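Service request form, structural biology core

Requester: graduate student, group of Dr. S.
Request type: structure prediction, single chain
Budget code: on file
Notes: please return the result as structure tokens.

Sequence provided:
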Amino acid sequence: MQIARDIQSKRYEDKNGVHCNAQMPSNQVKDICPITDAGTQLLKTAMQRLNLSARAYDRILKVSRTIADLEKSEDIKMEHLAEAIQYRSLDRENWSGQ
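Core staff response, request fulfilled:
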């Protein structure tokens, strides 16, 4: 986990007040969390099926970026997106009492 923190500290060293992916402002998400066309399609499908908001879209990308950092991956891969989507769907199930 420390390695992921170090990666994020370096990424945000010139961004005042931002130290980790969770603090990333929404206007930086596209630049810091680029995904492939296939990843975009996966995320759009998940957004529709889970009825998620635009804010959830950014959150999933931030979590995906963190998962990629934990694996020391420069790119967000499909499996990182899928894992983040799964966490989001589990979170929604817990809130709805299922």
